[in-house]
Amino acid sequence: MNLSIRQLRYICTVAQHGSVQAASRHLAISQSSIIAAIDAAEHVASTRLFDRRPAIGLAPTPSGRSFVREALALLASADAFDRAVKQQSSGMPAHIRIGCFEPFGAMFMPTVIRRYLDIMGPAEVSLLEGDHVQLANWLATGAVDFALAYDIGPDLGQSSTPICRLPAHAVLARGNPLAGRARVSLEDLVENPFILLDLPHTGHYLLNLFNHVSRRPTISLRTRSYETVRCAVAAGFGMSILNMRPLNTGLDDTPGLIRVPLSDDLAAPALQVVDIYGAHKPMFVRRFIEIVHEFFARLGPARFAVATPERHGELLFPLHAAHD
């Protein structure tokens, strides 16, 4: 075959994103390189792989769909080979690609990455912050080596190691009559306007919490930004529900906010490290998982979670509780 693994990856990315331009942005390469790969593949296959649709993009032909299906299988085998080779090495890669749920970027990732590099040695780190859908895509395409995310929404489809559970809690303005309580219920909150962290799957999860009570609150503001949620609560737009507080050194909570545990018996989502290596985790991945677990273990449930004291004993997972 006169096609490289790289060219096959270009073609599969075009099929996934529907245009050369979108694939070029995703891969951070020139459009001409992608077009050259498509031309080479069509020459080798002696058939057209994509229908060109002006102002719409590219759509795989029946032959193209078959080609992409076989190419994806080959790429999966190539990735498995790369992982097996990396497993043989105890060294630190020169470039590490980490994904995380977008709010985690400011809340604790710099502290964890700094600790990781202090132990493992210098490396270039690319931190990709995104929502659940983006993280799933980055893991599936090998754009990141591992990612930190909640276990809400569809399975990310990779190997996961749970770190801790983070129960939902109420975020209230200091002047809210409920802010002085030791705990509040969803029924207590339902009369307050709701500021919704409206990220894919996250917004759905938060709204569904109110399925346990008589009705849902009225949404006063939707935003994709964790920081905007905090500022909006402090500015008097209403209350919110979140799962994590800021944990980073130097990042204090927004003045004027009070975080109150929920008294409702709700399942708490788990923060997990998801990787692309399965049972064959190289040392640099295993060590990162250990450092993340150590970070939360040192903080303890009373610091990393806003929960009633009786729940603290169930929040931290034992190390290496991996699901491959």
Task: Give your account of this protein's structure.
The protein is α/β, with parallel strands linked by helices. The protein has 3 domains: 5-87, Orthogonal Bundle (Arc Repressor Mutant, subunit A), CATH 1.10.10.10; 95-166 and 268-314, Periplasmic binding protein-like II (D-Maltodextrin-Binding Protein, domain 2), CATH 3.40.190.10; 169-261, 3-Layer(aba) Sandwich (D-Maltodextrin-Binding Protein, domain 2), CATH 3.40.190.10. It is 40% helix and 19% strand. The chain has 12 helices and 12 strands. It has helices at 5-17, 20-27, 31-45, 62-87, 104-107, 109-120, 132-140, 186-189, 202-208, 226-234, 283-299, 301-304; strands spanning 50-53, 57-60, 95-101, 124-130, 146-150, 159-165, 169-173, 194-197, 219-223, 240-242, 257-261, 270-275. Strands 4-3-5-12-6 form a 5-stranded mixed beta sheet. Helix 1 (5-17) packs across helix 3, helix 1 crosses helix 4 and helix 6 crosses helix 11. The longest helix is centred in the N-terminal third of the chain and has 26 residues, at 62-87. The protein is globular. The two termini are 33 Å apart.
